[in-house]
Amino acid sequence: MKNYSVGLRTYRIVQTLFLAILAIAPLGLAQQRKAQPPKSVRLYVFDCGSLDIPDTSPYQLKKEELVTNKMSVPCFLVAHPKGTLMWDVGAVPDSSFKPGGGHAPLRYATATKRLTDQLAEIGYTPADITYLSVSHFHWDHVGNANVFAPTATWLVRKLEREIMFSEPPSPRTEPANYSALKTSKTVIVTHEEHDVFGDGTVVLKSTPGHSPDHQVLFLKLTKTGPILLSGDLYHYPEERKLNRVPTTEFNAAQTVASRATIEAFLKKTGAQLWIQHDFTANAKLKKAPQYYE
User: Fold this and answer.
1) CB-side neighbour CA atoms (13 Å) of 182
2) Gap between the Cα atoms of 233 and 174, Å rounded
3) Is 124 exposed, middle or buried (0-12, 13-18, 19+ CB in 10 A)?
4) What is the pTM of this model?
5) Between 159 and which of 186, 212, 268, 272 could a Cys-Cys bridge form, CB atoms 3.0 to 4.6 Å apart?
6) Which pLDDT does position 9 carry in this prediction?
7) What is the sign of the dihedral through the CA atoms of 171, 112, 126 and 278?
8) What does the pLDDT look like over 28-37, one tens digit per residue?
9) What are the distances in angstroms from CA 216 to CA 22, 161, 165, 210, 228?
10) CB-based contact 157:251 (threshold 8 Å)
């Protein structure tokens, strides 16, 4: 009987320890999943949906001139040894997704994944983002800005910020999706080139025209080489090939000049141009959790 009691006590102790380990394990796994600063710059591409453009004539392109009228809506995370940068944050806000799946309609945009879910998959939360910057203020690039506003530093050019908070609001955006940026920590970018981390690997470049203070993002990746993310400098690859300038540009002459400057820059640096809205090209890109480095 005595041996039985001792055995029972031992079993209960082991059982208690086992249950304690099980309780701690999820926390340990969560901590393991938290992303660590990389040794060199990484670029993650997220699927933030697509746009089914109902009328391509504002781009001075006929549908028969296009491979597809659809546009991709990617979001990007740049992970640098010194911090992180979110670049363009989609059209459809995470807050519009319903618990059972799907999201509330937003113009002609559709999305199937929350941006925050995709971030979590690679070990990041919105609080882990050091900087937020968008190519420009249009609705399909600012959808999740409020998610990052509480903790990230917003890198924005003066004329963009002014138009974003002007009255009445521009019809080309959704102010409710970036309203929290009004009181967020903000750095007004004043130079044509803004070196985000101070080592030339992540650089905001001024390209006005599509919007008053439009910008693009230049990256130097160790293995992939230099890349330039276009914002809306171009929308369709056919725009570039056929030299078409949309009729809806804020300043078409500025767009022409900005394109010429960037084309010369691409030739000089050998950088790849990633047209962010290029539906076909974007479909071929590695998506997170894979990355470019």
Assistant:
1) 11
2) 20
3) buried
4) 0.88
5) 212
6) 53
7) negative
8) 333 347 899 9
9) 48, 16, 21, 11, 7
10) no
